[in-house]
Write a structure and sequence with these properties.
Radius of gyration: 18 Å
Strand content: 35-45%
Number of helices: 1
Order of helices and strands: EEEEEEEHEEEEEEE
Helix content: under 10%
Distance between the termini: 41 Å
Structural class: mainly beta
Number of strands: 14
Shape: globular
Low-confidence stretches: 1-8
Length: 167
């Protein structure tokens, strides 16, 4: 099977039978195909795809079909966001080296998302500011290292001081 991005807004899979290529399915993406990841065990068939405008798609059959995760991601974010502006969109998929089914969906605003099952379900996290750096621990599944820049609003009575905070 081959996974191809055609005109960067459609993704299609094809199977080569002898010397004949057979298109299996075409899915239209919201944006250009960007980051594509196998998730979990190599033969499980779970995949995640992130477009350049922050839309995450999921496949559980090696890319033969894709489903958008937009509603699932927004519903999870609404549970932790103080307002709609904090939600933003996904800018990067980060896989844990300790657990290949564990991913962080890094957001461009205050909300990030975690999935422990290759996108079957997601949980949103709100740290009050966007992470500028994020790293999973190489062997401890539950450990992360993240940083975020302070905001001038953090210093109501003192002069603004911008620096990175570690989490």
């Amino acid at each position: 099977f081959f996974l191809n991005a055609r005109a960067t807004t459609e993704i299609y899979t094809e199977q080569i039978v002898g010397s004949v290529r057979c298109v299996q399915e075409t899915a239209t993406l919201e944006g250009n195909a960007g980051q594509i990841e196998y998730c979990g065990e190599p033969l499980a068939g779970d995949m995640l795809l992130l477009t350049d405008n922050g839309v995450v798609h999921r496949s559980n059959n090696n890319g033969l079909s894709w489903s958008k995760m937009t509603d699932q991601i927004k519903d999870a974010a609404k549970k932790v966001a103080d307002d709609e502006k904090e939600i933003g969109k996904v800018v990067k998929l980060i896989q844990s080296p300790a657990d290949p089914r564990l991913y962080m969906f890094l957001g461009n605003q205050n909300v990030n998302w975690v999935t422990e099952n290759c996108g079957n379900s997601v949980v949103a996290l709100n740290q009050g500011r966007p992470f500028s750096d994020f790293e999973f621990h190489p062997t401890e599944k539950e450990w992360i290292l993240a940083s975020a820049w302070t905001k001038c609003a953090d210093f109501e009575k003192n002069q603004c001081q911008l620096y990175k905070e570690l989490y």
